[in-house]
Design a protein that fits this description.
There is one protein chain. The chain is α+β, with helices and mostly antiparallel strands. The chain has 5 helices and 5 strands; from the N terminus they run αααββββαβα. Strands 4-3-5 form a 3-stranded mixed beta sheet, with no helix packed on it. A two-stranded antiparallel ribbon has the order 1-2. Helix 1 packs across helix 3 (45-58).
Length: 140
């Protein structure tokens, strides 16, 4: 197992995008990020997408596929899993009522999926699990 990559040197745009995501209480689309950063010189979606691509590569943010939105990594210093930044299977619980997102990792699920892939000769590049439903507050 590899230790997580230390925090990379970020460009100004990457730092601004990461800061917006870390301050957000909810996932954000690239266009929402762009709107938040217009006062900082952002004019085009491409500026946001380039920064997001690098932040994704660094493992500092995650893309929520079902929402087409992004969140800052909840455990950037974790060394519990696979290669690269230290992420194996990334899992998210997404509340369909309030929009709260909880990121979590379950070693048993990670190992089970890894065993399945190995048994089938499948080489996964990325595994993301999104569970949609109601958080404990909304379900009460």
């Amino acid at each position: 197992m590899n230790a997580p990559v230390s925090s990379p040197a970020l460009t100004k745009n990457q730092s601004l995008v990461f800061d917006v995501l870390t301050r957000s209480d909810a996932p954000m689309s690239a266009y929402t990020i762009l709107d938040k950063l217009r006062d900082h010189g952002f004019r085009a979606p491409l500026q946001v997408y380039r920064a997001l691509d690098k932040l994704l590569e660094f493992g500092m943010v995650h893309r929520l596929e079902s929402l087409n939105a992004f969140v800052a990594c909840a455990h950037p210093e974790s060394d519990c899993c696979a290669k690269g930044h230290g992420h194996g299977t990334v899992a998210f619980a997404i509340c369909e009522s309030c929009g709260h997102v909880s990121e979590f990792h379950d070693h048993a699920v990670d190992h089970r999926l890894g065993d399945w892939a190995k048994g089938k000769g499948f080489k996964p590049a990325k595994t993301t699990i999104e569970i949609r439903g109601l958080c404990s507050s909304c379900a009460a």
